[in-house]
Specification:
It is a single chain. This protein is an alpha+beta fold and about 170 residues long. It folds into two domains: about 10-65; about 70-165, no CATH class. Helix content is about 50%, strand content about 20%. It has five helices and seven strands. The protein has helices at about 10-35, 40-65, 115, 120-135, 150-165, and strands spanning about 5-10, 70-75, 75-80, 85, 90-100, 105-110, 140. Strands 1-2-3-4 form a four-stranded antiparallel beta sheet, with helices on one face. The N and C termini lie close together (about 10 Å). This is STM3941 family protein. It comes from Lysobacter yananisis. Keywords: Membrane, Transmembrane, Transmembrane helix.
């Protein structure tokens, strides 16, 4: 049985808008530093430059990053941001969509979650445990900033995991 390959990239338009906003706040911070004498202006403007400057670097990287973020194909699900490699369809027992403040996540219920969480760093394991305490799964596909319909990704994951379910013809 062959599955239709889905390759998802970053939403470049969204990252361009975020980059432009961050650069505007860096410019505002620079104006504050230059036009407001004293320590207060320096601290406020400097904080704006540092915070939004870091955001601008992150957004620029995401804008220029042309690597696929998420691939769904015959081999399984490969979310580059999870860092666990390809999760075969037979290992996905279920999935559900959760949205928080407009950011969509596909929560993966895995047949052997320890196999996948063992691939995470200690810091990532602590975050995964926190995810579970907040009502998410141990591993979640973060679709914020991805150029794809979250509902379509969920449907594809559910369909493919059912097709490759262990013991199924």
């Amino acid at each position: 049985m062959r599955t239709e390959r889905l390759v998802v990239a970053n939403a470049r338009g969204k990252y361009l808008a975020l980059l432009l906003c961050a650069l505007a706040f860096v410019a505002i911070g620079a104006l504050i530093v230059l036009r407001q004498p004293g320590l207060g202006g320096f601290l406020i403007g400097g904080a704006s430059i540092a915070f939004f400057g870091a955001g601008a670097v992150l957004f620029a990287f995401q804008l220029l990053d042309r690597r696929p973020r998420l691939i769904l194909d015959d081999d399984g699900l490969n979310d580059r941001t999870l860092g666990v490699g390809i999760i075969p369809w037979r290992d996905i027992a279920d999935a559900r969509l959760l949205t928080v403040r407009g950011h969509a996540f596909v929560c993966l219920e895995l047949r052997n979650p320890e196999h996948w969480t063992d691939k995470l760093s200690p810091r990532q394991r602590r975050l995964a445990a926190l995810n579970q305490r907040m009502g998410y799964a141990m591993l979640n596909v973060n679709l914020a900033g991805a150029a794809v319909d979250p509902q379509a990704v969920l449907q594809r994951i559910l369909t493919y995991s059912a097709m490759y379910e262990p013991g199924r013809g």
